[in-house]
Amino acid sequence: MSVEEQARLLMEFIAARKKFFAAKRAEEQRNKPPTKAEQRKKMCTYMKHMAGYKDKKFKGKSFDAIKQMFDKAYKQVNDFVPMDTESSRKKVDSSGKKAESSKKRTRAVLGEESVKKQKVEDDAEKAELKACLEIVPNDDSAVNIESLATKYPIVDWKTHILAEDIIYYQIIRADGSTKNYKIFSAMLDDFDRQDVLDLYRLVKERFETTSLEGYDRLLWGDLITLFEPSEEDEIWKTQQDYTLISWKLYDSCGVHLLLMNTGCSIHMLVEKKYPLTQEMLSRMLSGRLEVDHECEMAFELLRFTRSQLKK
Fold it and tell me: Biased-composition ranges for Basic and acidic residues (predicted)?
């Protein structure tokens, strides 16, 4: 077999693995149970369209309070029976069987209409959100998916400075395996949420006993911005001076990243609120969120960002 044929077969094998693992991850995302945020949104949508509620009714209310409101509205809608005509009432026998049948039919019709209406609304919203995504396939996605399923926890990290322009972080796992990264952002393709938490804990423990400097302090800055954001930090105070280059989601670890024209990167957890200005939120939504595949986490992040912009 020639070298060209071997190379072609290798490329086909890699492409097949990428497709298989991408499909597997997409299926896992689809099969995930709905989050409280998803349930809350559906309940609020139902109440607005079926019971005439306004958005201000839901503002500041907890999930349990919304659930109580929904249960009450749902019962009122399902218990509603249109008034029969005089002639219809005369035809109802003393047993009340006709009224009961009419009530059941009414509930069934209202239920079907509600489901259809909700599906149309969900499909319309999903199409709108899809337009805000930019799919940027990751060439190493298959390898990363496989490693996430078999990897060991992070137990240590080291910074290596070989020359002024050759600096990297070495991530060490419990099985003794290591991998090198130039910057924190590069780790996110390989990390899951537990990896991010473990690294934050390790760096914080060292920071509490040792004065971090140089490249170590840069890593600590990325992590403290991610987990302990403060409006007093310079990165938030000067955000208006930056031009947003890209907005990217790493769904394997639930982190999204803002890359600025200065080379500065702001890392954020998808479910956490940060001191972003309305102008920056607007810039994020006016562009597109970069993902390597379509996923529910991306849709939730877009909804969450929109909700902050409206406040």
Answer: 86-103
